[in-house]
Design brief:
It is a single chain. With 98 residues, the protein is of the alpha+beta class. The protein has one domain. The chain contains four helices and two strands, in the order ββαααα. A two-stranded antiparallel sheet has the order 1-2. The longest helix has 16 residues. It comes from Corchorus capsularis. This is Thaumatin.
Length: 98
Amino acid sequence: MVPISGGVGCGVAACEANLNVCCPATLAVKKQGKVVGCKSACLAAKTDRYCCTGQFANPKSCKPTVFANLFKSICPELIARLLMILQVLKLAGLLAIS
């Protein structure tokens, strides 16, 4: 991670790897025939299972997808940073997750 000027200990939540090359077709976001992004399983499927809602709204029943595990193994710093941001938002009352 690269520090952002002006903030002590702040960093950029980024990943150097291009995950678009291994994005499954069902999750691919294309522009002019080229993969430019990769949706989450939640965004693509819109089901409780993949969005960790309803009966899947707890760590025991909500399991990461194969692609989520791949992403986490390739970009662990990004995942850690995003989880920290989610926790801060939750503590501030700006995000309702369990």
